[in-house]
Amino acid sequence: MELLGNPYRCSENGCMGLDYVSPPPSPPSPPPIPTRPPLPPGWMEACDDDCYYAADGECDDGGPGSSYDMCIHEGHDCTDCGIRYFIPA
Predict the structure, then answer these.
(1) Gyration radius of the chain's alpha carbons
(2) Backbone angles phi, psi at 79, to 5 degrees
(3) 69 forms bridges with which residues in the sheet?
(4) What's the pLDDT score for residue 1?
(5) What stretches of the chain adopt beta strand conformation (E)?
(6) Angstrom distance (rounded) from CA 33 to CA 82
C-alpha cells in the first residue's frame, strides 16, 4: 500500500501527525498563600515535634484543644496541635 500525500501537518512551529491532538490547557495557577501578620510584641511561637508522643494523631502538648498533657511544654507536638503562641515568662 502506498501512502499518498504528506501524512504530517507542518507549520513554522514544526510538524505533527494528522492524528495529533493538542493537550488540554493547563489549569490556572492557585492564588498565592497569604502571609501571616507579625506577632504582637513580646509574643513567640513554638512548633517542634520533639515530644515522645508527637505526630501520633492526637494533640498531646497540654495546650488548648489537646487530648493529653504528655509533652514538657505546649508547642512540642506541632504535627498534631499546630503552632502554639505564647508570651515567655
Answers:
(1) 29
(2) -55, -40
(3) 61
(4) 45
(5) 8-11, 14-17, 44-46, 84-86
(6) 17
> Do 15 and 25 touch, CB atoms closer than 8 A?
no
The residues near 53 (Cβ < 8 Å, ≥ 6 apart) are 60, 68, 70, 71, 77
Report yes or no: 80 and 57 within 8 Å, Cβ to Cβ: yes
Element holding 78 (H helix, E strand): helix 78-81
pTM of model > 0.70: no
For residue 10, give the H/E element and its range.
strand 8-11
14 φ, ψ (degrees, to nearest 5): 120, -170
Q: Which three cell numbers stand for residue 23?
A: 493537550
**Grid cell 496541635 in the structure block, residue:** 81
By the 8 A CB rule, do 75 and 48 touch? yes
Per the DSSP assignment, residues forming a β-bridge with 16 are: 9
Is residue 18 a contact partner of residue 28, using CB atoms and an 8 Å limit? Answer: no
Q: Is pLDDT larger for residue 34 or for residue 19?
A: 34
